[in-house]
Design goal:
It is built from nine helices and eight strands. The chain has helices at 3-9, 22-38, 56-65, 82-92, 116-132, 153-170, 186-195, 212-223, 237-250; strands at residues 12-16, 44-48, 70-75, 99-102, 142-147, 174-178, 201-205, 228-229.
């Protein structure tokens, strides 16, 4: 049987970080619906690492109880930071009654040349959200790519890859800014663009869902002079496609 046919029958478990903010779980479930619509017949479930139920182990046990012998876990994470490198694999080691395929995180892995498909889809989704926010091409001369942030330097490098790709696509400078962690915050990113001569600056949200860190990134950028901020990537069609590509690679 072709690999793609097997992956249709294997349930997909999309695992997000989770948040105290109810908007985040709503966004995650909307993405799961978009993934299911993009691949009819594929069972798609959601799970969370914290704050929201079900947890990842519980979601996987539920699939086993439903008679499945295998599942594919797709981390709804944009960087391979602590949650992707440690938390998710740690949970999977506690589940013994399923054969589990673990997909890479959604953000680029292995560098730009190694993950051109992910970069292409992410840039298309980011541009979609910019257009929805009323930012047609040529209307801004600087963009801040706002991300949650991490202390893991390699993960920050992957955000820089996306910022560079988005800037090339738009033809304007694009720099990363963060809500937390080791990188510069979004206010500093706006200031850096202004120092380079940019006057019309947009924040492009490199978040999958809204929540405290998204709000913090937007508020800081606006306070520094950013004129517009996009919604998170959420259930953009390109993100649903990227989830399925990651799942197919893991299956």
């Amino acid at each position: 049987m072709p690999e793609r046919s097997r992956s249709v029958r294997r349930p997909l478990v999309l695992v997000a970080h989770g948040s105290r903010d109810a908007r985040a779980a709503h966004s995650t479930r909307a993405l799961a619906r978009a993934v299911g619509a993009a691949r009819p017949g594929a069972p798609v479930a959601t799970a969370f690492l914290d704050f929201e139920a079900p947890g990842l182990a519980a979601a996987l046990r539920r699939e086993a109880e439903h008679g499945h012998r295998a599942a594919t876990v797709v981390p709804l994470l944009l960087t391979a930071a602590y949650h992707g490198r440690v938390d998710v694999p740690g949970v999977l080691r506690t589940v013994s009654d399923l054969h589990i395929g673990l997909a890479p995180v959604l953000g680029p892995v292995g560098g730009a040349e190694a993950d051109e498909d992910a970069l292409r889809l992410l840039v298309r989704a980011l541009r979609r959200r910019l257009a929805e926010a009323g930012v047609p091409p040529g209307e801004v001369d600087g963009v801040v790519l706002a991300a949650a942030g991490t202390s893991h330097v390699d993960a920050l490098t992957s955000v820089d890859l996306v910022a560079e790709a988005l800037g090339r696509s738009l033809g304007v400078p694009c720099v990363a800014g963060y809500a937390s962690g080791a990188g510069q915050d979004t206010a500093a990113a706006v200031a850096a663009l202004r120092a380079r001569g940019a006057q019309r600056i947009a924040l492009s949200a490199y978040f999958l869902a809204p929540g405290l860190l998204y709000d913090r990134a937007v508020d800081a950028a606006r306070s520094a002079g950013a004129q517009v901020a996009t919604d998170p990537l959420g259930d953009a069609p390109e993100i649903a496609e990227l989830v399925l590509r990651r799942a197919d690679a893991a299956a």
